[in-house]
Amino acid sequence: MAKYLDPNATLTFRKVFCEQKDLLQSFLNAVLPLNNGNEIKSLEYIAPEVVPENPSKKYSMVDVRCTDNLNRQFIVEMQMYWTAGFLQREFFNTSNEIFRPLEKGDGYDELRQVYCVSIINDIAFPNLKDEFYHRYVPANVEHPENTIKGFETIFLELPKFRPSSVSDKKMMVLWLRFLTEINEQTKEIPAEMMENEYICKAVGIVEQSAYTDAQRMAYDKFWDEIVSERTLMKGYFRQGHAEGRAEGRAEGMKEGMEKGMKQGEEKGRKDATLANALSLKKNGVPIDVIANSLGLSIDEVRKL
Fold this sequence. Notes:
By secondary structure, the chain is α/β, with parallel strands linked by helices. It has ten helices and six strands; from the N terminus they run ααβββαβββααααααα. The chain has a six-stranded mixed sheet, with helices on both faces. Strand 2 and strand 3 (73-81) form a beta hairpin. Helix 2 packs across helix 4, helix 3 packs across helix 9 (287-294) and helix 8 packs antiparallel against helix 9. The longest helix has 39 residues, at 213-251. The termini are far apart.
């Protein structure tokens, strides 16, 4: 009986989407808001070096230049996130992607459409309880129907995904089932998934027998880091809430509790942001990029 590795780990995610153009093309056609007739017909990796050489790094990224059936070109950045504290970094990355195609001497009309696809293994939008697919574009606050064309951000919250929540895109369902149902406890792959050529190929790529001992060690290290980071962040939030409740009791029942909870939550978020920054710093991300992405000062990042 075949055994499988989780496709969300950096090592397996890279093998499926950063080394197999046909699988990435199928996935993007399934999740991007492309109309019938202008699906992606070909793609090329823009900068393979952005894919982490160390399989244990937690942030998997792939950038591609796509051509659709109408021969129009656009850029797609796809990123895997493991915590909800990513929004500032995501918009920072998006702005970089928008202007990267602009070479010296080109006009702004040379800019291509940019899509950023963020796959999130956490609850990022708790107020949208029954929605896992989120599409954002720059819009006029007073007149949201007026948007600025040029880039869109797609967020996929994997913990919220249920097959019954998608009715019109079969391939989206199959790909999200691949990302949410396949792991080391999987004993048998559902027939409807194996009947699809792309999913069947992806399943074969994450079979444990295809990996060396060194790759398995990197895979296990990746999960150790994920568990440690999540445990640390939960601890910061619990400590913040506790400190907030204590201060609230000292200042009075209702008013004090509200103020204390707010301060505790702010401290918890700040501590979690610093923990996230420390993790990025350890993984070699430049200090100025960390500061700009997470809303910190350069001195704060240097002191970590």
